[in-house]
Design a protein that fits this description.
By secondary structure, the chain is mostly helical. The chain has eight helices and no strands.
Length: 203
């Protein structure tokens, strides 16, 4: 592609490679570049320039969508830094139980088995649904705990790296990225567990 292909989303938008971005600044940069690259301005330009403006405009939209949300921002940073989750296979999150969640997953699976038995034996819906609601609480608490950990790790990343994402302490940088990847894998698994409970409640 054009210059956009040689720049990451942060650099393309003129932003530091940080996880806590100023949303107003992100919006401002996006709008300024949108005006600069909008295909309408290249209506009478040669075909090559029109194509380039379309590519830049599309890349800009992708960059903005990705960096606007904290979670997708973390995922993108991990990919940039060579720490993409599960080799880029998001399905791993639903197949492998992260070690930190073994206890919760074991307890939830037992509860789900019992709820399914209750349902099969004709127990009233309010009884087995109440059990599912109780089973959901510790998983939701775990999710909240992970959200707090991701915020703390994001702040840690921003504190140890410069605007270009380089750190004085390479060991600390690697450790922070590793922790971010682990928390994200666990977060995805937790969300899958909660989605599974919602499916059971909908039956």
């Amino acid at each position: 592609m054009t210059t956009a292909a040689r720049q990451d989303y942060f650099a393309f938008l003129g932003l530091p490679r940080k996880l806590n971005l100023d949303s107003a600044e992100l919006e401002q940069k996006f709008r300024a570049l949108s005006r600069q690259y909008h295909p309408d301005y290249f209506y009478n330009a040669p075909a090559a320039e029109r194509r380039a403006s379309l590519e830049r405009s599309s890349y800009l939209n992708d960059a903005y969508r990705t960096l606007k949300q904290p979670v997708s921002r973390i995922e993108y940073l991990l990919t940039l830094e060579g720490f993409a989750q599960a080799g880029g296979d998001p399905s791993r999150a639903s197949k492998e139980v992260p070690p930190a969640l073994l206890e919760e997953v074991f307890a939830l699976n037992e509860e789900l088995d019992e709820v399914r038995e209750m349902r099969a034996s004709g127990a009233p819906a309010d009884q087995w649904k109440a059990r599912l609601q109780r089973a959901r609480k510790p998983i939701e608490e775990k999710r909240d705990e992970h959200e707090a950990q991701l915020k703390a790790l994001s702040a840690r990343w921003d504190a140890i790296v410069g605007d270009d994402g380089r750190a004085n302490d390479e060991g600390e940088r690697q450790a922070t990225l590793t922790s971010l990847r682990e928390r994200m894998l666990e977060r995805n698994y937790i969300n899958n567990l909660l989605a599974g409970i919602e499916r059971e409640l909908a039956l």
